[in-house]
Amino acid sequence: MAKIILSTDYSDNALRACAYALKMFGPAGHEYRLTHAYISTDEGFSDWPTVGTELYSLATIGMAEWSKRLEELPEAIGAKLVKDVVYGPLPAMLNEVAKEHAADLIVMGTQGASGSGILGSNAAAMVKHSHVPVLVVPKGSMDRSVKRILFADDGQGVDLEAMRMLVDIASRTRAEVILAHVLEDPGETPREKIVAMYGELFADIPHRFVSTTGEDVAAALDLLAEKEQADMMAVMHRHVGFIDSLFHVSTAKKLALHGHMPLLVLQALEH
Question: Which CATH number is correct for 3-141, 2.60.40.1240, 3.30.420.130, 3.40.390.30, 3.40.50.620?
Fold first, then answer.
């Protein structure tokens, strides 16, 4: 059984992201936790107990109305949906809820109700600071089934435990995993040990290796994803390394996922 946190700001984008996850994993046999984090823009509001109560009341009402919309979708029929309304900054609260309930995955939309930013400020913060894998789902993803997943290999080794969610998703969707590497040197050859580890990890999953060259890693991956007609991109997030640069503002715009491609961000154990 997978334990999945469905993050929501009560927007249509969040609704689509939740429906996408329910469709991919299936409604039965999993625990889905709808989680909304609210916070006051007035730093002094804690001095006014009634304000805090009103904010919680509004957030709870919002959850009831929004979750009803989700429950009415065909993807949610038969799903076990637990509802959480918590106070605090979203990234910190999602990590806290994930730890408390031993979550396997956090799912969220790219842009919230405000529609600001490339991934949205909350999604961008989560992919960099989450302690568990994060699946970021852009608008339009519901129209595509997952047949090919492009995994960006950073050449730093294979973290078998951290790759578990990618293996799970590929197995569920029967997707082909395309292991993509951006070469710093055109004459570079894959390390045999890493190739062997990938072979063992994806022994029961169709997979193949592709490579390209380019100084701009984000742009090179984006072009590869388009060329390979990938339906999802997966990356390993580490404290350091080229993958971390993908989440900087300057490169995030280039890795726009074509506006429809979900991004699975795996978390290295040392992260």
Answer: 3.40.50.620
